[in-house]
Hints:
The chain has about 550 residues and is α+β, with helices and mostly antiparallel strands. The chain has helices spanning about 5-10, 10-25, 50-55, 95-110, 165-175, 190-195, 205-210, 235-240, 275-290, 305-310, 320-325, 345-360, 375-380, 380-390, 410-420, 475-490, 505-510, 515-525; strands at about 30-35, 65, 90-95, 120, 135-140, 150, 160, 180, 215-220, 225-230, 250-260, 265-275, 295-300, 315, 335-340, 370-375, 400-405, 430-435, 455-460, 495-500, 540.
Amino acid sequence: MKLPPLSFLKQNNAYLKIIMILFLSCTTDRTNLCSNHSFATPTAPQRLNSTNTLSSLETLGLDGYFSFDYMNNHHAAKDFGNMYHFLPSAVLHPKSVPDISATIRHIFDMGSASELTVAARGHGHSIQGQAQAHQGIVINMESLQGLEMQVHSGEMPYVDVSGGKLWINILHETLKNGLAPKSWTDYLHLTVGGTLSNAGISGQAFHHGPQINNVHQLEVVTGKGEVVTCSEKQNADLFYAVLGGLGQFGIITQARISLEPAPKMVKWIRVLYSEFSIFSHDQEHLISSENSFDYIEGFVIINRTGLLNNWRSSFSPKDPLQANQFNSDGRTLFCLEMVKYFNPDETKTMNQSVQNLLSQLSYIPSTLFQSEVSYLEFLDRVHVSEKKLQAKGLWEVPHPWLNLLIPKSRISEFAEEVFGNILTDTSNGPILIYPVNQSKWNNRTSLVTPDEDVFYLVAFLSSAMPSSTGRDGLEHILIQNKRILDFCAIAQLGMKQYLPQYNTREEWQAHFGSQWEIFVQRKSAYDPLAILAPGQRIFQKAIRIS
Length: 546
Ligand code: FAD
């Protein structure tokens, strides 16, 4: 399969033909689902003149504005994945929530005579065009100025934020009050609406659940243009639909995020294992322990000999002499990463607690590395790598990422095949692997997870070298991803994709399993014309041919 970057722009003609055919095949007024139809020869559909449709948007009298300029809108056809590029017809830069609701209501009122769809774009850090809208409208959520961030202290502190806010800005603002959100992603230059539409998973999720479980209330603009406040107690069905809902049911314009007292510092620890079974046993032990670490993750190191030297800049070995003598000999290693939060006056008790926890683990003794950094520095750690990669021109390369949730009972089998057979010589980026407790995750949201008490997040965060045809090229990495997915399917591991990427109705239906019917019902309740988030490729807007 050849899928070089920009190929989708180049393939736009072919894509357009497919879209035309889809319009023809969708002759009813109801929501259609993507599927593998076979198509008749297309003839041009009659529909509203799209220039008229677009110019009608200009009559809306918004606080913000529309951009129809092809050149200015180019950024809305890009994302972090850098593999899919669908150009919208217009980009809305909203200044208020009424801007968003008026736009969606206008499109809703046009009914199925208009082909326009709408994608909210957070920070555009999707992989496969999920925040794009081919010939539709992209809403640049970061320009939404509706709400000043408001931090509420007290026994159950929270912050009210706009859906387009970056998590890094929320962190800065809440820290002024000595507070912070409880659950994070590894990288904070993502928007609230973007991560809440997925889950928001990081090393705190074993304890607090993902970000979608740490939200008290949302304000949402539905696919009919209605502005609805929802929470566990009010419009609960919409609330849970939107959380993890892949942008299908509404646009998150505000969120009330749960906070906790923020520590000043963190103790950051890494230890190595050469046996996966010991590594995973220790991870599982830690996530089920009382008074455990505050953050637990892990990653796989494939074929790196100079590993210890790479770490010297930010971590100190507990035993420098022994650490110097440790050589990975090209073996695949597993690194357990743990963090304990503390304030400077708690250093002694924190160290005792860490010693106690470490004494329960079976890592290679010479490979204990530690560091103490500020809480802010720790949470914003990936941004440091981002700046380095940007300086080398290596941030805006294709990112064929693959994120999987694997049930605990099958993780050894998965590791044996993937790290023993599929990815033996090298990886093209970090591979994260860590378990979480299902009991801490609220199962009323739209997110689907494996059906076990404990499951692992395994994230293959590959970067492809743009013109390479070798092992670091896009084609090779996509083939490896496919081998991993094929293995999961053949071995029937009960895997669920996180940040799922599918193209057909059958695949989506299989992904959602028993939740599929509910997902479809919610779609027809909240976005009956399938206007929202077309880039997820779950539902196809039905177009009436008159
Ligand atoms: P976008 O890519 O802009 O949008 C994602 C989807 O959400 C689209 O379908 C879009 O239409 C929809 N959407 C956007 N805003 C809204 C809104 N306000 N209301 C409704 N729908 C909306 N994820 C994790 O869970 N944990 C991690 O540790 C993690 N680390 C990452 C690190 C990097 C470097 C990157 C690039 C991604 C990472 N992700 C992680 C994945 C990330 O959470 C998702 O890609 C997320 O969608 C990106 O947020 P965004 O604001 O860029 O959203």
